[in-house]
Amino acid sequence: MRKAIAAGLLAVGVLATGCSGGDDADSGKVEGEITVLTQRTDIVNTVFQEYKKRFEAKYPDVKVKFEAITDYEGEVRIRMGTKDYGDVLLIPNSVNADQLPAFFEPLGTVDELKDRYRFVRTEQTFDGKVYGLAITGNAQGFVYNKKVWAQAGITAPPKTPEEFLAALKAVKEKTGAIPLYTNYKETWPLGQWEGLRGTITGDPDAVTKLAQDDAPWTAGKEHHVIDSLLFDVVKQGLTEPDPTTTNWEQSKGLLGTGKVATMALGSWSVVQMQAAAPDKADIGYLPFPTQTNGKFHTVVSGDYKNAVNRNSKHKAAARAWVEWFADESNYAVDQGGVPVVLGQQMPATLADLAAADVQYLEFNPAPKGQEGLDGKIGNAAEIALFDGKYRQRIVDAARGAKKESKEDIFADLNKRWKQARATVK
Amino acid sequence: MKKKRIRLTPYLFLAVPLALLIVFTYLPVVSMFGYSVTAWDGLSPTKEFVGGDNYVEIATRPELFGVLKVSLYYIVASAAQTVLALYFAIVLSFDVRFRNLFKGILFFPYLINGVAIGMVFLYFFQPGGTLDTTLRLIGLESLTHQWLGDPDTVNWSLAGTSIWRYLGLNFVLFLGAVQSIPAQVYEAAELDGANRWHQARYIILPGIKPVIGLMVILAVSGSLSVFEIPYIMTGGANGSETFVISAVNMAFKYYKLGLASAMAVVLLLLVLVVTWIQRRVVPEERVDLT
Fold first, then answer.
1. Which of A77, A188, A244 would you mutate first to test chain B, the one with the most B CBs within 10 A?
2. Which of A101, A129, A192, A348 is deepest in the core (most CB within 10 A)?
3. Per-residue pLDDT tens for B177-225?
4. Is A367 found in the same domain as A220?
């Protein structure tokens, strides 16, 4: 049984070996050929070619070249060990705020940009400087098939986790659909549950407080509420029977056609689910089932941010693309996302949230020196909040594949979180 | 002049594979040792030197080795695989009808890309998939099962996939060894009245002993470092995480490149030790059938 021993082991070694290129002077003019990295392998040859045409019409001295990358997070982070990571790229989520100046060109100060763009106050900023402009924005909650929920007799969004569970139960009994699909096998969809933090308390400082907390999985706190709901949904048999063989691409069709009723995903998913549904109007969006002061809340935050490579030879042209993409490409609206330019209308995909009078909130910036601290603690504790791996463990325990209780897991998470918090500064 | 060229030629032939080996195996291993004494997140331009801290952490965290239990499934599977491969190699070394067809069928899985195999077997094992359907057809409906979802069967399912994939390679290596036994030996044996079983037992098995020894070493070291099939099929979820998967997660999920490199070094040493023990227990001997 000869396994790819070298491949597995040496990946760690090989991937980190870099090289460096020569430096030509940057002319400072909007000209030259720029390489733009994108994660949208699905539309790089269609929608993005249209963008290229429009951009090159406006800036005739610039030539745009795209590089679409399937495993964007993993691959680009490794490429950033070299100088060759495109002229414009999306900042990988795993880059800590304090690492931004080493890799990206500042686009301006927060004060200069905060009245024009969303998300620049808090996200991908460091030391009062902004390093990236979001391509679009997302709200957080559950994407669901309205028709199936209506068949089960539920028309108003549930207000408490108990109501939510009762609704899913009704879906199971009355329609035979899978009430909630976890997409366990792909792992990252479980990481989407992490995006729900802040929606429970409606507190714009929720993330800062998380990083200052020694026991986030204590009853009543946000992580306890979120992960308990996940545990209970699975425990009560309201999810797919075999989570280990789920398939993301297929799951869109399942939700679209009503074989699956609900999934916990950011609002970016609505457009994709609509595309897989016979009737767009079947797909809706639900807030997390908790209310503060009698109102639902959802967090809006930026998707990937376009940024300029610090080593780019055509920084002016690269910058022009970043701004053009935010101001004129119309990408956010076309993708059903929250617009990046302030003052533009909320998308039709979120009409359900407006109808339920859901309050939007954006997180406040972390105190100086604590930017991205929650992520650092999560990694040091080997929890990796946004990865979904630790939530796989919760699903396993809930379905009885692991002999652990919910309390065991939460106690262990609290312990590791506290230990890691003590080491990360 | 002529003499000199002859001496140079072998080195010219060696240069290309050696260059590839050095660039893609030895250099990364050297840098892996380098990373293993740092605390590095894989991105930051500075790597903080921490000496032996990562090794101390590995030694003081027994749960990191807990995943090695999963390798036991693969060791059992590779034992079965070696026996099967040997059986097929011996049977097909005799004059069997369609033997080339069977050889092809057995070797074919090894030629398929590992990712494709992972995908195919995901459909094979999923509820209502190929395996369940087949069981239903032959009236064994009661055996249908969440092959990957049940923590008691997930590792057997994955190890089974692994047998399917690597059997062909073992088989071809055994077959090559079996066929290298000179035909006169068989003729002489037949004259002495030996049947097929006697030939297998007293000629073939002793004749290919070194290859069997090699196979056992490869099987054990392979089982310790299983990666591809479980990583593609389950991502290490549901109790199927192996040591290499946990090292990869350490590096690319938690961004502890230093600790992950140290884990890789430890695994390398572990494999070397196991191999050394095996060599001591079963020393290599030269085989002379003539």
1. A244
2. A192
3. 999 888 888 889 989 988 888 888 888 988 888 888 888 888 988 999 9
4. yes
Task: Please state, in angstroms and as integers, the Cα–Cα distance from residue B259 to each residue in A302, B64, B198, B214, B269, following that order.
Answer: 32, 11, 53, 31, 15
Element (H, E) at A326: helix A315-327
Domain positions in chain B = 21-66+254-290, 68-241
Q: Which residues of chain B are within 8 Å of residue A14 when distances are taken between CB atoms?
A: 24, 28
Read off the tokens for A186: 């792909």
Instruction: Please state the φ and ψ torsions of residue B230, each to the nearest 5 degrees.
Output: -65, -35
Exposed e or buried b for every residue in A191-206, given b needs 16+ CB within 10 A? bbbbbbbbbbbbbbeb
- Give, in order, the Cα–Cα distances in Å from A98 to each of A73, A120, A127, B45, B228: 18, 15, 8, 12, 35
- CB proximity A73 to B under 8 Å: no
Tell me what the mean pLDDT of segment A156-162 comes to: 96
A51 touches B: beta carbon within 8 Å: no
Using the predicted structure, report yes or no on whether residue A115 has a pLDDT greater than 80.
yes
Q: How confident is the model at residue A5 (pLDDT cuts 50, 70, 90)?
A: very low
Nearest to B262 by CA among B34, B67, B27, B28: B34
At residue B5's C-alpha, the angle toward residues B4 and B9, to 5°, is 125
Q: How far apart are CA A214 and CA A259, in angstroms?
A: 41
In A, minimum Cα distance to B44 occurs at: A99
In this predicted structure, the answer to whether residue B285 has a pLDDT above a threshold of 70 is no
- Report phi then psi at A11, rounded to 5: -50, -45
Domain that holds residue A100: 29-134+302-337
Stretch (H or E) spanning B248: helix B243-252
Enter the DSSP assignment of A306.
Answer: E
Rounded to 5 degrees, φ, ψ at A307 are -145, 165
Contact B264 A185 (CB under 8 A): no
> Would you say residue A348 lies in a domain?
no
A16 and B35 in contact by Cβ < 8 A? yes
Task: Give the CATH number, domain containing residue A69.
Answer: 3.40.190.10
A2 → closest Cβ in B29, B45, B169:
B169
Determine contact: A387 vs chain B, CB below 8 A.
yes
Q: What is the mean pLDDT of chain A?
A: 91
Which CATH topology does B68-241 take? MetI-like fold (1.10.3720)
Same domain as A369, residue A247: yes
A56-92 pLDDT, tens per residue?
A: 999 999 999 999 998 898 899 999 999 999 999 999 9
Any idea what the Cα angle at residue A391 is, between residues A288 and A256, rounded to 5°? 55
| Same domain (yes/no): A128, A221 | no
Top pLDDT among B278 and A151 is at A151
Please list every residue in chain B whose beta carbon sits closer than 8 Å to the beta carbon of residue A7. Answer: 227-228
Give the whole-number percent of chain A exceeding pLDDT 70: 94
Q: What is the pLDDT of residue A1?
A: 38
